[in-house]
Amino acid sequence: MKKELEAKIQQDIILFMNKNYFKTHVIFSVPNEIPYPLPNKIMAQIISKLQQNGLLKGASDLVILCPNKRYITVEVKTSTGTQSKEQIIFEKRVLQNGGNYILVRSLEDFINKVVPTL
Fold it and tell me: Which of 37, 40, 77, 114 has a CA 20 to 30 Å removed from the CA of 68?
């Protein structure tokens, strides 16, 4: 259920951005998990293949490309969700490289935290 709520928040953000900032910004999701259950052996094989092709554990859910060569990474969580160890490491790496990393918990949170930085 938690992943479904995060997915809904993410969808709302994508729709908002495409409606309001389509001409000036690019937003895309980072599919960093398999959204449906699979047998462990098959899941391990798929994850291994995806990692060989660049899957990065802990990568943010969304990336926004802004004018002037800036970017913002957005992690979507529910009101009670917490970052994994890998997500915290990813956040630190983004910040060390001059990027913006923002954790949001709703579309309203996104509008309040991210939109002012666009």
Answer: 77
